Amino acid sequence: MLKNDLLLRAARGEETERTPVWLMRQAGRILPEYRALRARLSGFKELVETPELAAEVTIQPVDALDVDAAIIFSDILVVPEAMGLPYEMLEARGPLFPTTIKSAKDVQNLRIADPEEHLGYVLEAIRVTKRALNGRVPLIGFAGAPWTILAYMVEGHGSKTFSKARRLLYAEPELAHELLRKITATTIAYLKAQVAAGANLVQVFDSWAGILPPAHYHEFSTCYIAEICDAIPEVPVTVFAKGAYFAIPEFARLNCRTIGLDWNEDPRAVRAAIGNDKTLQGNLDPCALYGTAEQVQHATIQMLKQFGPHRHIANLGHGVYPDTNPDNVKVFVNTVKEFSVLAREGSL
């Protein structure tokens, strides 16, 4: 039994005594205890692939920030590696795939990964984390959306345009679909295994959703996200697609419980467009946390007023930036807790 199940109740649309709060990318770089641990290791991948260390980092923000959920410390790019396309994580540069997908043969050579065989270190990290949390808060699992994973597998690295990946959609759409089907099959098996290992909720990150035109997003992303949502009925699913404001009406029809909003989206407009059947998550601008404590508090209250007191999970509109002052993150978390209680009591 969970001692704090606010996140799950909010995701299911149930009444909560206050708004739950957590942060994307909370497990890691803003915390000095994370940086101290990371400095002792060979690099990011050693941390991701060592279950006991990944579990330790996952729990750090629960201790330090008093958030309402833990999210397993991992990376969306473990999926292409499990499929047979390894990646490197370069300091100050980000991910790099020494080999990329260029042809039909490359796609044929990829496997649909077996979660226990090829991603067992993530599943063990979830099991270790669950034991250590001992029911304090829910544990969130996650994976990248198929389009975002394809973008990295074809481009080979981060990009402002992902022009190679987008070219594939125009030049060889059937090959793109073949690759997306393999990624989707792997992702479904992986997320189901995360749930079996103990994840209480899963989130699908479509980090590069916003670089596609709406027609391509519908054809090459939404349908595969829908397949993932349909396959995970056991726990609530959150869909977060950065920059894809045009896809919100489609997301409203998905079998997901929660829709994540980036900081450019208006919660009131989204709620008016989709109705009350979904929980919304977000969406404070991460840069708002660079302000003074008073400014952070003000921005957080304004965000909460836009969402209203029900069917909301407070978060940022994207991941917390690495040079953010943890004290300001605590102001954000504490303001959500204090203000949302008063809003429900009608004391404001």
From TrEMBL:
It catalyses: uroporphyrinogen III + 4 H(+) = coproporphyrinogen III + 4 CO2. The record marks D75 as: Transition state stabilizer. Residues 20-29, 140-156 form the Uroporphyrinogen decarboxylase (URO-D) domain. InterPro entries: UROD/MetE-like_sf, Uroporphyrinogen_deCO2ase_HemE, Uroporphyrinogen_deCOase. Pfam families: URO-D. Substrate binds at R25, Q26, A27, G28, R29, D75, Y152, S207, H318. It comes from the Bacteria. Homodimer. Catalyzes the decarboxylation of four acetate groups of uroporphyrinogen-III to yield coproporphyrinogen-III. This is Uroporphyrinogen decarboxylase.
